[in-house]
Amino acid sequence: MNSFQFLVAVTASCGGLLFGYEVGVMNVVLVMDAFRIFFNLCTWDGSKLNADGVNIEDKSVKDKVPFYRDLKPTDSKSFIEGFITSSFVLGALCGALLASYLGEKYGRQKTIMIGACIFAIGGILQGSSIRNYIMIAVGRLITGLSVGCNSVLCPTYISEVAPAKIRGTLASCYQLMITLGIVIAAIINAIVWYFTNIKPDDLNTPRTKIDAEISNFEWRFALCLQAIPGIALAILMSFLPKSPRWLCSKGRDEEAVQILAKLNATSVEDELVQSELRAIQEDVAATVAAGSSSVVELFSSVIRRRTFVVFFIQLFQQWTGVNVIMYYQSQIYNEMGFTKFLSTIVLPVVNNLVNFISTFPGMWGIEKFGRKTLLIVGAIMMMIFHILTWAFSTQTSKGEFWKYLSVISVFLYVFAFASTWGPTPWVYQSEIFPTSSVGTMSNFFNNWIIAFVGPALMKMWGTRSFLLFATCCLLAFLFASFFCVESKGLNLEEVDAMMSGKAAGKA
């Protein structure tokens, strides 16, 4: 791999940074007092909590120093919270539906640039929302359109410019950037929360209306900040080359060979460049000969195996429960008995750092051990840690020791996910069905269900929800064991032949 290939792959991976920031920002925004009051998630009658989160008016409480507002949840909290959070994923689902058409018509590079600009617009709309949860939901839906489209095209673009030997590592950079975006959002918004929600200026101000607004700077700033990475990605993508595969599909072979030569740091006459060009031309010709695809063709004898695999691999990625933790982790930690400070600032930042750092072993392991091995081992690990989280959480009333065991189990689950099921489905999808958005649509559809029902699920079942996710991890293990094949070290044309039944793959 040369420096230009690396630069291209990393820059395109920054589409994942937008996705990650959007996920990370909502975890903290959802527990910002001003946001909760503004959108009728909670009310505040002026009562106060001490540093331990106990109402200071309680006669048995010795610590009477006010630290936090004592907000009371409304009856509609779970619905509004789920609606706002899931609207982003609904938009992403629609974006994924449009991705293949836009990527083929306008090219991967140009469509990613447009998507980045749409992301910036959506962030500004969210931050400037009026006092109606429909408007912020529309802003999040627009942001989701961008993320959904780029979640299909960024890994595809990377796989089309990366050499086969390290394609998996470079394609998993997309997942790495998602985790980095989550970390950046967690740190920035934790700082904002700290200065606006701990001993706020209005803490001792008398309240005449329980739903009266307080300063909304905190959440408006956090959401509008999304415009910066969106605009930055659009600018950076303008310097990258078009996909050679897309150029060949448009009959622009001369441009394609020039880009292949630049990517390989050699001349257009070099045998490596010429062999890559021939392989792409043959594959494009086969695709053209097959004609345009339709929904019916997704289930044809040639295609249905790919459709089945990418749909279910992304379904299981979501039903491992990762986004319930990422969207609502502050509330989960609070239910385990941790203070507001630990639940909102310390533990989410630590968890998101674990998520980020754990992606590196996954990027290494995906080429060292292969895609299938990571999926099998990861599913077993996640199932074990979910069961441990539930078991330890049932004992938290017995002391601090059990609370910390519970949260450590959550961190270990995140490690298992980020090093296996985090990057692998995206890499696998871009290899076995790069021209289809079926997998990404499956991801966002199931993500939408999880995001919408998550608050109600946690309210009804509490930490018993982890048992549901443990069961899903068991099913994911069975799926990976019996239905996934190994694509490590194969170029896209070899993978295509294997999935079409023209060559034997590694089981």
Structural overview:
It contains 22 helices and 4 strands. It has helices at residues 3-13, 15-29, 33-38, 77-106, 108-127, 133-161, 167-171, 173-197, 217-224, 227-237, 244-249, 253-263, 271-290, 304-319, 322-335, 340-368, 371-393, 400-421, 424-432, 438-461, 465-483, 492-499; strands at 42-43, 48-49, 68-69, 72-73. It has a two-stranded antiparallel ribbon. Helix 1 crosses helix 8 and helix 4 packs antiparallel against helix 20 (438-461). It is globular and about 85 Å long.
Quick gist of this model?
With 507 residues, the protein is mainly α. 71% of the residues lie in helices and 2% in strands.
Essential attributes:
two-stranded antiparallel ribbon; about 500 residues; about 0% strand; globular; 4 strands; mainly alpha
Provide the fold topology.
Blueprint: H1 3-13, H2 15-29, H3 33-38, E1 42-43, E2 48-49, E3 68-69, E4 72-73, H4 77-106, H5 108-127, H6 133-161, H7 167-171, H8 173-197, H9 217-224, H10 227-237, H11 244-249, H12 253-263, H13 271-290, H14 304-319, H15 322-335, H16 340-368, H17 371-393, H18 400-421, H19 424-432, H20 438-461, H21 465-483, H22 492-499
Antiparallel strand pairs: 1-4, 2-3
Taken in chain order, the helices and strands follow as HHHEEEEHHHHHHHHHHHHHHHHHHH
Class of secondary structure makeup: mainly alpha
Instruction: Give the number of helices.
Output: 22
- Give the number of DSSP strands: 4
Please compute the radius of gyration using only Cα atoms: 24 Å
Percentage of β-strand residues: under 5%
Q: Globular, elongated, flat, extended or rod-shaped: what is the shape?
A: globular
With strands numbered from the N-terminus, the spatial order across the biggest sheet is: 1-4
Q: Determine the fraction of residues in helical runs and give it as a percent range.
A: over 70%
- How can the largest sheet be summarized? 2 strands, antiparallel
Question: What is the subunit organization of this protein?
Answer: single chain
pLDDT < 50 stretches: 503-507
- Arithmetic mean of pLDDT: 87
The CA-CA distance between the termini, in Å, is 28 Å
